[in-house]
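Lecture notes, continued. The same structure-token format from the folding unit now serves as the input rather than the output. Read the line below as a description of shape only.
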């Protein structure tokens, strides 16, 4: 069974990411200039956020390129986990940015700065348009890929942040309402923190060879035992090499018989694991009933 049918179109993803990288650095430069001229700390903070977005997307692009490289004698699984590592880095950066946003929000509550609200909103609008385009470019790939989802969340959070900056600028310009900016900043930070911690936990689970989310080892074992002529199973391992690349290995006990007669059993197990649990790589050791099997041998 092929484990590669789920891979994304690398050239298409690369083109989309390249456009997003360019957009983010244009936004960064624009907001730095606008922040200095208007005196807006929120614009400078948003520029820093956009700069981190650009770096995040560069990391994502590098990871996708590494993931597409073929297997070798040095890397027999290929470099599939490059994307998982990128997701850890990006999600970790998002956690740090969230903490930074909370700290900045508390400072703005206590020490609001006089700024040009009109210029602040105008520059943030440019950033919003570019971020919306960037999130649209990455949205489709983010549904099945943690690496792209982390980069997508960077852009989405900054698009929401841009809305907050626009509203804050308008509130300051027309009503002199300074407190709305830190309130929106805290709300944005909470959303980013929640999503990034989910990605971080999921990515670390893959690195720690955890049972894939949504799969029950008990149910998988029962499915194997339901196959005709399977009398027992032990030494079971279920893990992900990378996202959507699930591996399973086990010792399968059958009645003593010639090895070529067990091929039907092997194929039946591979089919049920693929069809019911989307397990992409199965390694089975067929052995006769009566081998030693302690509780420790179950895993």
């Amino acid at each position: 069974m092929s484990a590669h049918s789920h891979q994304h179109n690398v050239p298409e993803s690369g083109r989309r990411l390249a456009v997003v990288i360019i957009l983010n650095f244009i936004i960064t430069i624009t907001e730095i200039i606008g922040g200095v001229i208007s005196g807006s700390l929120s614009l400078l903070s948003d520029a820093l956020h956009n700069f981190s977005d650009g770096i995040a997307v560069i990391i994502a692009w590098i990871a996708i390129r590494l993931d597409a490289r073929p297997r070798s004698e040095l890397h027999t699984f290929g470099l599939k986990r490059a994307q998982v590592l990128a997701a850890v880095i990006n999600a970790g950066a998002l956690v740090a940015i969230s903490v930074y946003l909370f700290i900045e929000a508390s400072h703005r509550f206590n020490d609001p700065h006089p700024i040009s609200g009109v210029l602040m909103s105008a520059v943030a609008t440019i950033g919003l348009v570019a971020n919306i385009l960037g999130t649209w470019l990455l949205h489709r790939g983010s549904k099945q890929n943690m690496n792209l989802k982390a980069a997508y969340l960077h852009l989405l959070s900054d698009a929401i942040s841009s809305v907050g900056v626009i509203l804050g600028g308008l509130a300051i310009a027309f009503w002199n309402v300074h407190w709305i900016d830190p309130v929106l900043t805290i709300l944005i930070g909470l959303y980013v923190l929640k999503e990034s911690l989910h990605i971080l936990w999921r990515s670390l689970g893959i690195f720690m060879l955890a049972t894939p989310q949504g799969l029950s080892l008990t149910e998988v074992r029962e499915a194997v035992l339901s196959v005709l002529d399977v009398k027992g199973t032990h030494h079971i391992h279920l893990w992900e090499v990378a996202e959507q690349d699930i591996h399973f290995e086990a010792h399968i006990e059958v009645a003593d018989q010639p090895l070529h007669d067990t091929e039907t059993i092997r194929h039946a197990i591979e089919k049920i694991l693929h069809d019911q649990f989307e397990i992409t790589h199965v390694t089975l050791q067929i052995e006769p009933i009566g081998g030693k099997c302690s509780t420790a041998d179950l895993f």
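Point for the exam: Residues 81-110 form the longest helix (30 residues).
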